[in-house]
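Hello, quick one for you while I still have it in my head. A protein chain has come my way and I'm curious about its shape. Can you walk me through what the C-alpha cells say about the fold? No rush at all, and the record is pasted right below.
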Amino acid sequence: MIDLNRLQDMVVKGHIETVIIAAADMQGKLFGKRVTADYFLESAQKGIHACAVNLVWDVSLDFQDNYEFCSLDNGLHDMVIKPDMSTLRLYPWCEKTVLVLGDLQNKDQTEISVAPRTILKRQIQRAKDFGYKVNAASELEFYLFKETEDTLREKNYHQLSPLFPYPVDYSINRLTRDDRFLSKITRHLTMAGIPVESIKGEWGKGQYEINLKYSDALRMADHTAVYKNAVKELAAMDGLTATFMAKPVTDDSGSSGHTHISLWDLQSGKNLFYDPLQEHGISNTGRYFLGGVMELASEFMLFYAPYINSYKRLIAGMGAPNTLTWGVDNRTTSFRSDGKEKSMRLENRVPGADANFYLVIAACIASGLYGIENKIEPPACTTTNAYNLSNIGSLPLNLMEAVERLDHSERVRALLGNDVVDHYLTAAKMEIQGYLSEVTDWERRKYFEFI
C-alpha cells in the first residue's frame, strides 16, 4: 500500500502520472474517474463528484426512473467519492497509475446509506460494538473465453469458445499451460497489495478459481472488487473475455463465490469461533453466529443471489447448495465449518461469483450478530449428502421468491434500514420486469415452429 508522502515522492520522480478514484456500485463494480496525479494531490484527494445515477442503474447501465435516492425529479444529482487513503495502491497493469477506493457521500459530507461500502461499514461497526473484529476471505470462480467484445456480439453470445474444452479440476498440467496469464494476475494483484493464496482449475470448461488471503472484512470486500475488475481487464488485454456470471453455460457448472468469515476478540486477538471442548470444535459464539446466518439466509437471499441468472446455478447435483443445511467440511451443505484454532471459520457456500461482496459480507455479519444476540441454535449438523435429504428447509429458488422474502422481512429491515432494503428491492424488481418482457432464445426454440 502507498501513503500520501510516498505518492508525492513518486509523482515528483515521474513514477506516477494518473490516479484512479473509484467506488463500488450496487453490483460491486468499480466506477469513478481517472485524474492526473498533480490534480489529485492538489484537490481531488478531498473528493470528486459523480452522478448519483451510478447507484440506481443496473449491471448494463439501464436506468429506470423509479428510485427514491436518485431520479429525474431530483435532477440526477451529484454525489461525492471521498477517497479512503488507506486503500491507495499501485494499479500495475496500467503504466504509472495508482488506484484509491472511496466512500460515497452526499454533498453535505453525510454518508449515503444505500452505498454498498457504507452498508458493510455499518455492520463492521456493530461488530466492534460487540467487541468483535470480523475477518473474511472470498473464493471466486470465473470463466475465460477466447472471445473479444466484438466476437461476443458477432456470435450473439452463442457457441463461444472456452479457454479449454474440457474439465480441468485441480489439473496442474492446465495451470502450467495457462501460466502466462494466470501468473500475470497473481503478480499484478500482489503488486497492488492484494495477496493471492492459490489458483486452481475448476470443473467447467474454461473455468478457474482464485483464492485471496483472508483479511479484515472491509479490506476483503475492497480486495474482491479490485480482483474482479483486474481479472476482466487483464483478460481483455490478452484478447480474452472473463465472466463472473453465476451460470454462463446451461450444461456446465456454475461459478461460486464462497465466503469465509470468523469473529475475533478485539482485546485478545483470539478467534472466537473455536472451542476444542465443544462439539465439532465450534464455540457457543460460533454456533449462535451460524444459527443467525442460517435463520436469515432466505431473507438475505437477494444479497447472495441478486440476478435472474444467479438461481440457475442453485440446482441440486451441480455443486451449488440450495438447502438450509450445514456440515463439518461437507460441500453438499449450504454452510460449512472448517479449520481449528486460528483457521476456524464458517463458510457461506450460497453466494455466486456474480454477487456484490460488500453486501454478501454485510449480510453475513448482520445475520450472524442477530444470531448471537438471540442465541439462535443452528439445526443439526448434516453428515451425509444434503441433496438427498427430505423435510428440510430450502432457500429461495428464483429471484421472485427472494424479493418476496426480503420485502416482508421485518428483521432485515431492522438490521439494514428500510431505505437500504427498498433500494435493492427496486433493483431486483426492475431485473424481473426486464426479464419477463424479453422474448428469449429458449422461447423461440420451444414454441416458434410448434405453435
Notes: The radius of gyration is 22 Å. The chain has 14 helices and 15 strands. The chain has two domains: 4-112, 123-444.
